[in-house]
Amino acid sequence: MPFSFTVTHRAGKARAGILTTPRGVIHTPFFMPVGTAAAVKGLTPAQLSAIGAEIVLANTYHLSLRPGEKLVASAGGVADFMGWHRPTLTDSGGFQVFSLAKINRVAEDGVRFRSHIDGSPVFISPERSLEIQQALGADIMMAFDECPAGDSSRDVVAQSLRRTHRWAERSKIAWTNRERQALFGIVQGGIYEDLRRESAEFIAAQNFSGNAIGGVSVGEDPEKIAAIVAFTAPLLPENKPRYLMGVGRPLDIQRAVAAGVDMFDCVMPTRHARHAEVFTRQGTLKLRNLQYREDFAPIESDCECYACRTVSRAYLRHLFMAREILAPVYAATHNLYFYLRMMRELRQEIIAHSE
Q1: 262 catalytic, yes or no?
Q2: 28-48 pLDDT, tens digit each
């Protein structure tokens, strides 16, 4: 089988395993660097490989607008197009239903957007989303869903949930390249446990390749995020990967791994890097602060990333203050290494304490 998943170790609810795709093997639990437009901001594919990345995420909505999925397909798919000859996952465009709510209109047939680039009309339906994703050639695709805001009323969440279920069925019908591309369903339901249970049972029954927990980290506080994930993850099939979409604080990820989640993504490491904020085991450092002007220590003393082995906090502060393009490159290198190291350590801990 081109796509398979095996849980090899369990420690409590936490799992370590192997996810096999046509483009390579991924060790779970894992974090996906986000390459929205087929580029992880600040790092080349070679640098991503060097820090231990095994899969990269790209975005259906953005790539369909620029440069267009047909061009990407003619290059051999998104992995070949960006020179990343390893697994890729594409978001369906469903998150943009939430993030671009001001420029879209949701209906039963799909979502009508105004392009954020030039204002031209854009229509994405479950069928159109799968058409784009199959052209992009991702190893893992996502069913098209509707993601309501975290403060939505129960009635709004319930209505959105059932539309997501109908769209999941349509996505499954539109999934034609089943030999080479996996498709994951997405559980919605907001903060309401009964709706989460209803959605988890429905999505699990569709027998997708894997299952995702969506609609989390869209306005909820960290404790609520942890509660939603801890409730939902055990409802999903044991023999398929579980993906928590868009949740990126280190503590949130650690809690989700303990609840039995296998896959993560977030823009946080690279976005924070662009704003001179780096992650350490003791918390984040804001490198533009004056306290780092003469601090010649590395970002983190026990970190083996290229930035920490090469330059100091003082130098990085200088680069950010001088607006040198190299500044966010160093910071992104460290931040992504920090996340990938955290995932490796979580995996090792699960294996060491496996039952």
Answers
A1: no
A2: 999 999 999 999 999 999 999
